[in-house]
Automatic annotation (TrEMBL):
Signal peptide: none annotated. It comes from the Bacteria. Pfam families: RibD_C. Residues 10-166 form the Bacterial bifunctional deaminase-reductase C-terminal domain. InterPro entries: DHFR-like_dom_sf, RibDG_C, Riboflavin_Biosynth_HTPR. This is Dihydrofolate reductase. PANTHER family: 2,5-DIAMINO-6-RIBOSYLAMINO-4(3H)-PYRIMIDINONE 5'-PHOSPHATE REDUCTASE, DIHYDROFOLATE REDUCTASE FAMILY PROTEIN (AFU_ORTHOLOGUE AFUA_8G06820). It comes from Meridianimaribacter flavus.
Length: 183
């Protein structure tokens, strides 16, 4: 990873067969489990995060939630959305950027935003392939959904991971935290 770029961190859930959403972006398979009141791993993860970057598909899904779930500022990467597409109540929380991953991470670094939460299947794939992700926290959900949007796509080369921690969770979830060794 280049020194003049922010570092990306991934925190996602995936079905055991590797999907992060159904083909229509639905998360019904994940939401059916409810909340683990003893799990604060997301809060711990976001404590030291400076900003969130997501793709437009993830943004369109999250904007449909009852309330905006993120405390940190969110940058949405999109070639088609503009700042006018962001609802008024989110104008100070969401910024639309039409930059490629390297340009965006350089922009964030130059604005003193160093630790970036990267969210969204295709976006995560793009950032990983460009060497812009340093750690991945992946919660495996014990369900096979058969088809949908994959977390990891095709790669040009192997990417070695080092396991930092692994913990069993409620509902049979397993959360693994990895450091990317090479990219």
């Amino acid at each position: 990873m280049k020194e003049s770029y922010s570092q990306g961190y991934v925190f996602m859930a995936a079905s055991l067969d590797g999907f992060v959403a159904r083909e229509d972006n639905s998360l019904d398979w994940l939401m059916k489990y409810g909340v683990d009141e003893n799990d604060n791993s997301f809060e711990e993860f976001t404590e030291n995060i400076d900003a969130l970057v997501m793709g437009s598909g993830t943004y369109k899904t999250v904007i449909g939630f009852d309330q905006w779930p993120y405390k940190m500022h969110t940058y949405v990467m999109s070639r088609t959305l503009t700042q006018d597409d962001v609802p008024g109540e989110l104008q100070n929380k969401v910024t639309i950027k039409n930059l490629d991953p390297n340009e965006l991470m350089k922009f964030l670094y130059e604005n003193d935003l160093k630790k970036i939460y990267v969210d969204g299947g295709k976006l995560v794939q793009s950032f990983i392939s460009k060497g812009l992700v340093s750690e991945i926290t992946l919660t495996q959900i014990p369900i096979l959904i058969g088809k949908g949007k994959r977390l990891f796509g095709e790669l040009e080369k192997d990417i070695d991971l080092e396991l930092i921690t692994s913990k069993p969770m409620k509902f049979g979830f397993i959360q693994n935290h990895y450091r990317i060794v090479n990219s």
